[in-house]
Amino acid sequence: MIRFKRLTKEELKLLQHEFIQFLIAQGIDSGEWVRIKKVLPEKSKLLVDQFSNLVLEKALKNVQYLEYHSPKKIASIHCGEDMMRLAVIEVTENSDVDLTDNKYIQLLIKTPKNKVKIYQSEKAYRINREEEVFSYTEKGWMVSDGKLFNSVLTANT
Length: 157
Prior knowledge:
Blueprint: H1 9-14, H2 16-25, H3 30-39, H4 41-61, E1 65-70, E2 73-79, E3 83-91, H5 102-110, E4 116-124, H6 129-138, E5 142-144, H7 147-155
Helix pairs in contact: 3-4
């Protein structure tokens, strides 16, 4: 059963060595893999799904921060063990600030406070942590280093 997504052929090619090791651990050598792909295509898909789950779960466990940028909002999430902390800077719709353009971040400091909202919140995971982190990446959130998160928290104090 696929928990995240099936890796693409290109992604599998990049992880070829790891996939071969996975197959060996399953007791499948190269000849057997060729046979399975030809004779048992559903089993080959199942094996790729299992490998995809392992790879993505390991990667998602390492994600600590996510961020999202739009012209009127920048947001960052710290993905803790049991909960997510959200930090947001948002400008009003009628503001000429475009938060996707780095030069406007400096202008943000000069923008009157009534046109800028800075806030934070927390929430427990609705589902498994890794599945929730994955769902955010599917919505366009990017993995980040946490600098934005910490900057927004600092700006909010």
